[in-house]
Automatic annotation (TrEMBL):
GO terms for cellular component: cytoplasm. It comes from Kluyveromyces lactis (strain ATCC 8585 / CBS 2359 / DSM 70799 / NBRC 1267 / NRRL Y-1140 / WM37) (Yeast). One of its GO terms (biological process) is pantothenate biosynthetic process. The keyword NADP applies. Gene3D superfamilies: N-(1-d-carboxylethyl)-l-norvaline Dehydrogenase, domain 2, NAD(P)-binding Rossmann-like Domain. Keywords: NADP, Oxidoreductase. GO terms for molecular function: 2-dehydropantoate 2-reductase activity. It comes from the Eukaryota. This is KLLA0F04928p. Belongs to the ketopantoate reductase family. Residues 16-185 form the Ketopantoate reductase N-terminal domain. InterPro entries: 6-PGluconate_DH-like_C_sf, 6PGD_dom2, ApbA, KPA_reductase, KPR-Related, KPR_N, NAD(P)-bd_dom_sf. The keyword Phosphoprotein does not apply.
Length: 363
């Protein structure tokens, strides 16, 4: 369905957002509010509700919004790919869980719409934009889609935001939206131009912030300081961040024996990849997070019985560290403990099976 269609003379792009959680809906609304693109959203579980009632959004950036719908709403990626529309920007805001079900991996989600775009116009650039956590997540896309074959530009988005879906079609955004868009290959001039155009159709002066990032991979490493240390720990212990600080030995152990050592290991891994992280960010993330009553995404996912973004937040940097000869004892401990928790979730979801007679995993 559609509403408030932008006049064709004013449209400069078409964007499809896949993933209608707190991040995806605000991303869609920001594009819509800017008014320079036709906005489509894959909303899956909330589809019937959104078609009938639209979204209710309580946003620190845009205020209270009721009955909002993007120009097009689709229940599945397959529905979007069958709509005979070319999407200039395919924006992924789903969780990135490569160790999850095969049909929910990023390349599996992208396949129908990338192939549909290619069939509609093989001369037009398709921009895949990954607004997800983690490091080196773009490599999965490159392994499955040849950019030359599909006329593909691979863009990366690093978003700082606190936005959550609290009920069907109801989004609460507490933290202001700041997104850095850039080319995965920082020397790809075409992709750089496409990233800059995306900024121009996303940024809403006085509301959100969209900026071009000439080294978005470095920005990903910066954000990984928080995710690899703090996000993971909260999931492991089931606590919000301030409690992680306050409940520790002498109110110091979590910070100085877990958070900071893990962050310092991320700094070392990044340095082994010729990426220099400003170590002042270690102070920043510790100081800011201790003063916000907030449960990070991995903690929330675990509480709700959802698989965590473990491999792209911890697995990938640890593998880079191993290849580059960097020691990561704190990160490895967090990773190996969380692997046990992740597999517990997988067993509950019947994704793996443990034979209690032979006491072995059954493939």
């Amino acid at each position: 369905m559609s509403s408030n269609i932008i006049p064709p003379s004013e449209q400069t792009s078409s964007a499809l957002i896949i993933g209608a959680g707190g991040v995806g809906v605000i991303t869609a609304y920001s594009l819509y509010h800017c008014g320079l693109s036709e906005v489509s959203l894959v909303t899956r579980s909330d589809y019937d509700h959104v078609v009938e009632f639209g979204y209710k959004i309580d946003s620190c950036d845009y205020g209270e919004i009721t009955n909002w719908r993007p120009h097009n709403v689709y229940k599945t990626v397959e529905d979007a790919s069958s709509a005979e529309k070319f999407f200039d920007y395919i924006i992924i805001t789903t969780k990135n869980i490569p160790d999850g079900p095969k049909d929910s991996t990023v390349h599996a989600i992208l396949k129908p719409v990338i192939e549909a775009n290619y069939k509609l116009n093989d001369e037009k650039v398709t921009n895949v934009v990954l607004i997800q956590n983690g490091i080196d997540i773009e490599k999965e896309v490159l392994e499955h889609f040849n950019p030359a074959t599909y006329n593909l530009c691979l863009l990366s988005g690093v978003q700082l935001i606190a936005s959550t879906k609290v009920g069907p079609g109801h989004i609460v955004q507490k933290g202001k939206d700041h997104v850095s868009f850039g080319s995965f290959d920082k020397d790809d001039d075409i992709a750089i131009g496409q990233a800059k155009k995306l900024v121009s159709i996303y940024h809403n002066e006085g509301h959100n912030t969209g900026v071009f990032d000439e080294n978005v991979r470095k920005t990903r490493w910066n954000k990984l300081l928080y995710n690899a240390a703090i996000n993971t720990t909260t999931a492991l212990v089931g606590l919000d961040v301030p409690r992680c600080f306050e409940f520790s030995v002498e109110k110091k152990a979590t910070e100085f024996e877990v958070f900071r050592p893990a962050m310092q290991e991320i700094v070392s891994i990044a340095a082994s990849e010729d990426v220099s992280i400003d170590e002042n960010l270690i102070e920043f993330f510790n100081d800011v997070t201790r003063n916000i009553l907030y449960k990070p995404s991995m903690c929330v996912d675990l509480e709700n019985g959802r698989l965590m973004e473990l491999e792209i937040i911890l697995g990938n940097p640890i593998r880079i560290a191993k290849a580059n000869g960097v020691e990561t004892p704190t990160l490895k401990l967090l990773y190996n403990l969380l692997i046990l928790v992740q597999n517990k979730l997988k067993e509950q979801k019947k994704l793996i099976e443990f034979d209690e007679e032979i006491l072995k995993l059954v493939v």
